[in-house]
Amino acid sequence: MATRVRPSSKRCAVIGGSGFLGRHLVERLVDRGYTVSVFDIRQAYELPGVTFHLGDLCDKQALLSALKEVSVVFHCASPAPGSDDRSLFQRVNVDGTRTVIQACLEAGVQKLVLTSSASVVFEGTDIKNGKEDLPYAKKPIDYYTATKIQQEKLVLEACSKEKGFLTVAIRPHGIFGPRDPQLVPILVDSARRGKMKFIIGDGSNLVDFTYVENVVHGHILAAEHLKADSPLCAQAYHITNDEPVRFWDFMSQVLVGLGYSAPRLHLPYALVYGLSLLLWLITLVLRPLVQIKPTFTPMRVALAGTHHYYSCARAKQDLGYRPPVSLQEAITRTVESYPHLRQGA
Ligand SMILES: NC(=O)c1ccc[n+]([C@@H]2O[C@H](COP(=O)([O-])OP(=O)(O)OC[C@H]3O[C@@H](n4cnc5c(N)ncnc54)[C@H](O)[C@@H]3O)[C@@H](O)[C@H]2O)c1
Ligand SMILES: CC(C)=CCC[C@@H](C)[C@H]1CC[C@H]2C3=C(CC[C@]12C)[C@@]1(C)CC[C@H](O)[C@@H](C(=O)O)[C@@H]1CC3
User: Fold this and answer.
1) What pLDDT was estimated at residue 1?
2) What are the φ/ψ torsions at residue 195 (nearest 5 degrees)?
3) What ligand has the least distance to the C-alpha of 203?
4) How does pLDDT run across 43-79, given as a tens digit for each residue?
5) Domain enclosing residue 157, as ranges
6) Which-ligand-closest: CA of 88?
């Protein structure tokens, strides 16, 4: 009978390790002495000591070959949140996560750390200092959020001390930093097309934007503190910068830092939200004839015009989490990392 080699606790796999968060996580894990395997549908870079396994996480056999002798799995793969492909979200975030859990159990993985999202409780209305015990959104604002909820439930329900398989979910919010393909590039694209002149609402709404290295720190703390006798088992943790900021001040700082004008004119929130819903309906009706990708989707407008910031007290207490990089330092580093997106570049 073959004996299963006990995996080293420093051998881990990052599913989605070619992505924005995944790559930062891989780099930090390597710095901390972990042996890292990346599993992704694409290879975005090379790094000494990191092995790449190309495959779709819905394919259990492909996953199994990447998880050999791995003790910790970080699952941070997802289709891009801006997509409106409902079946893709269902296939990857829900069915695929079931496959990831199954593969982890078969491969003898001991810990699974899921990158969830604070948006799992967001329904488009204000959240102020939200704690992890807020109920999941009953009317999720888009397919991305709906499937992130199902994904988180699957992973937390799979936690089993009897099976020696422990799970935890990290809920970051508004991740930004160098190489982010979303926030800064979409913002700059909107500014270049003259769409960033307006502030949606009165501009006083507070939100969390979280520096990518702080999010990585939260993931690694969670993996290292997750033990059978710890309070982490089957729990979700908000990881934020712990410095809520006015949405429009943050956007303005990034824009001005890159040489663009800050938005100044105010538009009523209800009007812009209504228009974004109307536009979304029109794009749905016209989809068989023409593909339109609106900049101001109902989700983005809701995020831009409401309060949504979260307490990370639970992470502070159970993980000893403190954000290593302050918001100001994070904005400076981020702006400096995008010379190609500067005005006139
Ligand atoms: N960016 C944010 O603001 C934010 C905030 C909260 C939570 N999250 C979560 O963090 C995680 C990482 O987000 P990101 O911003 O780095 O996204 P990203 O798009 O940069 O990375 C996702 C990675 O997953 C891979 N992937 C997608 N489908 C796959 C599949 N079927 N099989 C294998 N790999 C697949 C992609 O190729 C990509 O490399 C996601 O789970 C996302 O829901 C992101
Ligand atoms: C309306 C406007 C000014 C648009 C430009 C910036 C947006 C592209 C950007 C602002 C807040 C961002 C955000 C996300 C995507 C990009 C933004 C809408 C997420 C929806 C990405 C997916 C994550 O899970 C969400 C989270 O909970 O952290 C993000 C929330 C903030």
Assistant:
1) 42
2) -100, 5
3) 2
4) 999 999 899 999 999 999 999 999 999 999 999 999 9
5) 8-176+208-241+310-324
6) 1
Question: What are the structure tokens assigned to 39, written together?
Answer: 């599993």
Ligand 2 atom at minimum distance from 148 CA: 24
Residue 269 corresponds to which amino acid? Y
Asked if residue 18 has its Cβ within 6 Å of ligand 2, the reply is no
Centre of ligand 2 from the C-alpha of residue 196, in Å? 15
- Give the global pTM: 0.96
**25 inside domain:** yes
Q: Decide: 96 in ligand 1 pocket, CB within 6 A.
A: yes
Q: Is 45 a catalytic residue?
A: no
Residue bearing tokens 């109920």: 135
Query: Is residue 262 assigned to a domain?
Result: no
CA 72 – CA 113 distance, rounded (Å): 8
Task: Tell me how many domains the chain contains.
Answer: 1
From the CA of 303, give the closest atom in ligand 2: 11
Residue range 180-189: average pLDDT?
Answer: 96
Is the separation of the CB atoms in 64 and 107 below 8 Å? yes
Q: Does a structural domain hold residue 150?
A: yes
Q: How confident is the model at residue 29 (pLDDT cuts 50, 70, 90)?
A: very high
Residue 29: inside a domain, yes or no? yes
Task: Check 144, 211, 269, 309 and give the catalytic one.
Answer: 144
Q: Is 183 in the pocket of ligand 2 (CB under 6 A)?
A: yes
CATH of the domain at 230: 3.40.50.720
Both tokens of 188, joined, read 């700059």
Quote the CA–CA distance of 323 and 239 in Å, as a whole number: 8
Among 21-25, 277-281, 288-292, the minimum mean pLDDT is found in 288-292
